[in-house]
Amino acid sequence: MKAASHIGMEIGIYSLADLYPNPHTGKTISAKQRIEEIIKAAKMADEAGLDVFGVGEHHRLDYAVSAPPVVLSAISQVTKRIKLTSATTVLNTVDPVRLFEEFATLDLISNGRAEIIAGRGAFLDSFPLFGYDLENYDELFEEHIELFLKLNAKELVTWNGRYRSSLKDAEIAPRPVQQEIPVWVGVGGTLESAERAGRLGTGLTLVILGGDPNLYEPLVNRYRESAVQTGHALENLKVGVTGHAYISKTNQQAIEEFYPYHSNYWHHLNRRHGVNTTFSRADFELMSGKETALFVGSSQQIIEKIMRQYELFGHQRFIAQMDIGGMPFKKVAENIERLATEVAPVIRKETRK
Fold this sequence. Notes:
With 353 residues, the chain is of the alpha/beta class. It contains 11 helices and 12 strands.
């Protein structure tokens, strides 16, 4: 069961703004420089004709962005057409009314380019930071997204819930340029989350960081089945794929160049989760193989991987995370150019058929 695609796949990039040291120099750039480089990357992506730019949310000293709508607002002033999305918004621990106000304002500033990918986050720091109980992890997400969708649909909202104060004929302002702010739910691997996205009629964003892409097909099927069962039109459903990517002249060169950054990223991330694991250069070569979901290789290999996944998912969007593990901006810029000039035109043409 696949939704139709008439204009071809949207292609974009996103950043989680990690502040990890460059594995070659041991130096870590400042949060100020990191944000400046993210804005520069977005401007470059817009000028190169990419469709989407995303910024993630974290509340830790080893990440530079805790307020995506603020950064996206800055980006909106140096870009013209690229869509601007959170990647992701940790919806469990943000007030839906405040979130709507911020993204509706971004939509006005950007002339209708704001979007949200809502998720539950890889870290739990925001729960104690904003006074939420971790025991209510799933219930908070469910309540917050249902309320946000009501705010998105109506100017006056009456609502009662469990975890925040009630609303009675509340004026929800400002209203965005778009009729509604597009909302996607980020899903890493649980059928329940995919089913929820379908039931609510939001977009589905798959977080695929490696392994066999076939493992994610049941999530997409469950999403579409759930949506149709609850009365949502199949043609209105959207699926996106996100993942780590690195493009070079050859497959081997891409592996050689990206391995230090990818390994460094996972070393620091896993250590923050109390896991001290590493993988070898040989392991990484296997992880980047032709049949895997890790988008590492020549432009041709990236095209083949995206198209293989398109056969599985029939998705409408692909956004790549490139700037990980202390990668210098020069490498990021090279990847943006290759994605925009060598990969995106082929993917758009093939998915328009």
